[in-house]
């Protein structure tokens, strides 16, 4: 959403209309991309911006007509006039409850409660049923912290209770069946899995397996390319690269792409060698293989003495 900052025209009228360009600068009407209406309030000013199709794109309260510091209610709209986001500002910062919407402006996408210490509590919803997806606290560094709750799709039933510290899983993570019975517990230390337990729907403990497993290559990708592709190291020195592909449920690779490679010939050699890899261990959900879009960053590291 673009913010348009114009200049206040001195007037005794309750409302002033400004014509502004895409940068928010005051221009003649013939050169305008947007127009702005300033309404003087008892405290501050209400700034309303319209595009040239006369669609309101935002309505925000400021401390003054110069539209520098936001203070009070705010609402933003898309090019069709559908609400995108709404909430309140205090001294230029978001505060209290804010709501964002999916395309169309009718279904809630997220609800966020901002605190003065720059932490906030987030709730996200699915676009189909409008049910809660997950909820929890974000700290001042934009990282998950404390207890997070995740719900079954299109359901009010709790699926996971996660514990986070500075964005990393820490301590016990608990999963439930949809009927509320305990399904799985996992213990993490600094985001590293340590141990887990699993129960069936009858409450009987069974052999543990993780709820999700990432695909695993048959060999270490970096080492494989260093030994197989003569130009790999010198090309990687020039610019980091990124491997993207699809690992199918049978362990085969498809849709292979190497991004940001500055040497087209070397790029083709890398692809040719990667296609010679044996089958991968596929990604799994609840022990069942699935197709998975795999991404891996290739960065150059200077060896330590």
Give the % helix: under 10%
Work out the strand percent.
Answer: over 45%
Largest sheet: 17 strands, antiparallel
Shape descriptor: extended
Mean pLDDT: 92
Q: Topology, please?
A:
Elements: E1 15-20, E2 34-40, E3 45-51, E4 56-62, E5 70-77, E6 83-90, E7 93-101, E8 108-114, E9 120-125, E10 132-138, E11 144-151, E12 158-165, E13 168-169, E14 171-176, E15 182-189, E16 192-199, E17 205-206, E18 212-213, H1 221-228, H2 232-238, E19 241-247, E20 253-259, H3 264-274, E21 283-285, E22 288-290, E23 292-298
Antiparallel strand pairs: 1-2, 2-3, 3-4, 4-5, 5-6, 6-7, 7-8, 8-9, 9-10, 10-11, 11-12, 12-13, 12-14, 14-15, 15-16, 16-17, 18-21, 19-20, 19-23, 21-22
Tell me briefly what this model is.
This protein has 305 residues and is mostly beta strands.
What do these coordinates show?
The protein has three domains: 95 residues, no CATH class; 94 residues, Histone H3 K4-specific methyltransferase SET7/9 N-terminal domain, CATH 2.20.110; 78 residues, TolA/TonB C-terminal domain (2-Layer Sandwich), CATH 3.30.2420. Helices cover 9% and strands 47% of the residues. The chain has three helices and 23 strands. The protein has a 17-stranded antiparallel sheet that branches. A three-stranded antiparallel sheet has the order 18-21-22, with no helix packed on it. The longest helix is centred in the last third of the chain and has 11 residues. The radius of gyration is 27 Å and the shape is extended. 16% of the residues are buried.
């Amino acid at each position: 959403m673009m913010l348009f900052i114009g200049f206040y025209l001195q007037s005794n009228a309750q409302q002033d209309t400004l014509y502004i360009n895409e940068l928010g600068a005051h221009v003649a009407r013939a050169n305008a991309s947007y127009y702005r209406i300033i309404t003087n309030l008892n405290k501050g000013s209400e700034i309303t911006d319209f595009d040239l199709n006369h669609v309101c794109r935002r309505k925000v309260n400021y401390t003054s007509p110069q539209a520098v510091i936001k203070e009070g209610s705010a609402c933003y709209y898309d090019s069709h006039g559908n609400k995108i986001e709404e909430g309140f500002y205090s001294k230029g910062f978001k505060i209290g409850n804010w709501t964002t919407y999916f395309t169309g402006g009718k279904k809630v996408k997220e609800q966020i409660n901002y605190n003065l210490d720059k932490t906030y509590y987030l709730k996200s919803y699915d676009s189909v049923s409008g049910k809660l997806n997950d909820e929890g606290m974000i700290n001042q560094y934009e990282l998950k912290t404390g207890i997070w709750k995740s719900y079954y799709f299109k359901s009010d039933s709790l699926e996971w209770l996660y514990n986070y510290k500075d964005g990393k899983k820490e301590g016990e993570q608990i999963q439930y069946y949809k009927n509320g019975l305990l399904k799985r517990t996992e213990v993490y230390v600094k985001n590293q899995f340590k141990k887990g337990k699993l129960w069936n729907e009858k409450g009987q403990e069974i052999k543990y397996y993780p709820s999700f497993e990432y695909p695993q290559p048959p060999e270490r990708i970096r080492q494989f390319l260093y030994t197989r592709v003569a130009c790999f190291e010198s090309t990687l020195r020039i610019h980091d690269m990124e491997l993207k592909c699809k690992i199918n449920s049978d362990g085969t690779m498809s849709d292979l792409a190497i991004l940001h490679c500055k040497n087209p010939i070397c790029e083709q050699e890398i692809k040719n060698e990667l296609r010679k890899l044996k089958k991968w261990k596929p990604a799994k959900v609840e022990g069942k293989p699935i197709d998975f879009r795999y991404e891996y960053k290739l960065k150059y590291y200077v060896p330590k003495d």
